[in-house]
Amino acid sequence: MHRRTLMLGSGAALLGAREAAAAGALSDPGLPAGTREVAEMASPPGKVKLIRLTDRPPNYETPLEAFRTPITPNNRFFVRYHLAELPTMAELKDWTLTLGGDAAAGTAKLTLADLRRLPAAEVTAVCQCAGNRRGLFSPHVPGVQWSIGAMGCARWRGARLRDVLKLVGMKPEALEVRFHGSDHGPLSETPIFRKSLPMARALDPNTLIAWEMNGAALPLANGFPARIIVPGWTATYWMKHVTSIDITSAADDGFWMQKAYRVPHGVFPAAAPFPSQDTAQNSPVTDIVVNTLVTDPVADSRVHAGGFEVRGIAWDGGSGIHQVEVSIDEGKTWQTAKLDKDLGPFAFRAWRHPIARVAPGPVALRVRATANNGAVQPDQLMFNPAGYHNNAVRTVHVVAA
Amino acid sequence: MHRIALAMLLAAAPVLAIADDVPAPLRPGAGQETVERICSGCHTTSYIRMNAPFLSEAQWKAEVTKMRQVFGAPIEDDEVAEILAYLIAEYGAPK
């Protein structure tokens, strides 16, 4: 009955200093107190050492340590579901993908083998929940209280969505391409999880139906056997276990498009419009905003006053990273970091910067990225009521000795 | 080369049944049993603890209304006030 309470207590006591630093998010003072109580290291099936926020539906984030490489290993990749009834491997054995819709010229049903006979394409891209860092909003807003780890970057391999759509053809009135997956709520009244893309994005050569992630089959919790990949756009469109794709002449009017995943109109510029879902009040969340994460040194750790290196990753919605800057004087002056190997415009870009001798005592590290499209991380949070797109410049406090 | 050994995967891979732990009980208080019974029908009660203590009375009311009207949570009329009072008292923003 009280098993978990006991586990929480003993687990916390056993956590070493190194592990505690690596976990980081478990104790970030920017998170709500209740979130810090709930968050716990866990290794659900197929995963190793993620931070559990909830287990039903499963919401697990990736700890800081797993972002020290620009490719996130499959077994460290975050897990996010809205609804608690999930497909089993036994059910997915007979997986098929149904193509149709009122603006499709025909219908088709594909097996995984059919899908894999199409020309394969590969893209390295960041999959980031729109609500990543929601838990660090001030003031706090309701939702899953993610810290920094509701994201990952992988090499995705699959068929181009446009090649799949060609199999059925489309009518001139085609407006959106709508996806449905196989997870659902316990109640039939709960809106099914359905998302749509504007035609232009659906036909973009980078938009895939992937069956492989980092050279292996997709983990069950990341959408086995196939998921939609929309490089540059937030993960809400990356439908897991996708079972049907409809070409439609009308804008999807479901809850998950029209009520959820909305931001105030005009606050977050997008590279391309999504006119069929835009209103005067709000717009659908689309492009990933420019952001950085400092992976070293970790907050509250000790650094050498004689000099140390700051390392991390930066990413945006597909224009690529122009520069990363580091400040140790609260933003008065900035030094330009060295960018590591470019894995493509949609990928994490690793960077590093040596800090010369500093005075012993507290050091406040600030890091900001600028994208190739000119977007730069804001000093202050771009507040919005549902808690999306938190890319405010953060400060990492360390102590030099 | 990139072929997936599907049969092997299916044999080895578990069900995505991650909810094996009993969630920590909610705080004792008037309405606790009703909240646990109804809310845990669709999700772990850790959602409540995670979203605390910062939601105002109006924000908790909006959450309960959303669960009822959008997600179809089977909350009877006379249970709404009981659920709300509990959430505000035990998991609401400090007044």
Report on the structure:
The complex is a heterodimer of chains A (401) and B (95). Chain A is built from 8 helices and 25 strands. Chain A is mostly beta strands and 401 residues long. The model of chain A is unreliable at 1-18 (pLDDT under 50). Chain A has helices at residues 3-14, 17-23, 33-38, 89-92, 112-116, 161-166, 199-203, 255-258, and strands at residues 40-42, 50-55, 58-61, 79-80, 97-100, 108-110, 120-128, 151-160, 176-180, 194-198, 208-213, 216-217, 227-229, 244-248, 262-264, 282-284, 291-296, 302-303, 308-315, 321-327, 335-336, 338-339, 349-355, 361-371, 395-400. Helices cover 12% and strands 31% of the residues of chain A. With 95 residues, chain B is mainly α. Chain B has a domain at 31-95: Cytochrome c-like domain (Cytochrome Bc1 Complex, Chain D, domain 2, Orthogonal Bundle), CATH 1.10.760. In chain B, 51% of the residues lie in helices and 0% in strands. Chain B contains 5 helices and no strands. Chain B has helices at 6-12, 32-39, 46-50, 57-69, 77-91. In chain B, helix 4 crosses helix 5. The radius of gyration of chain B is 18 Å and the shape is globular. At the A-B interface, helix 1, helix 3, strand 2 and strand 12 of A face helix 1 and helix 3 of B.
